[in-house]
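Handout, section 3.2

Students often ask what a structure token actually looks like in practice. Rather than define it abstractly, here is a full record for Potassium channel tetramerisation domain containing 17. The first block is the sequence as you would receive it.
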Amino acid sequence: WVRLNVGGTVFLTTRQTLLKEQTSFLYRLCQQQDLHSDTDESGAYVIDRDPTYFGPILNYLRHGKLVFNKELAEEGVLEEAEFYNITPLIKLIKERIIERDSKATQQVPPKHVYRVLQCQEEELTQMVSTMSDGWKFEQMVNIGSSYSYGTEDQAEFLCVVSKELHTPGSGLSTEQSHKTKLFQIHGSRM
């Protein structure tokens, strides 16, 4: 049996477990007699690292699987795997971090920008039919009378349109197109 004093916490494991990864610091600790390492009063090798993150490292060497509490940051376990130079574990944790980060970005619902445009009845058909550049018609509200009292009286409408808001880092252009500017002009008449 081999005793390891990691940051004040003593771990007990077999020599076979520590010899599983030939490029690791722990392998060298067991194999190379010329590697001078401090020991405590009980003969345990003293390693100045965080014992919280050493548990998952040791368990990986024991059974080849990465298992740790959700309270532990994967980046912390990665840091320890890199210190102990356990290459397959480093690769596994990096893959998990990439997978976690990609899931996190996929779960963020897209944000939308909404605009309210005011138009006369005669402009309504043209405005709705020429909408483009990602703008979607959401709702229309009649705010004026639909009865004609004279030749100039027309119904007025408020049209709500929306567009998915792209963040600057998404690679999509945020420049305003000609049609978008026209929507803004129509909307500013309110």
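Discussion prompt for tutorial groups: Residues 2-106 form a domain with the Potassium Channel Kv1.1; Chain A fold (CATH 3.30.710.10). How would you have guessed this from the sequence alone?
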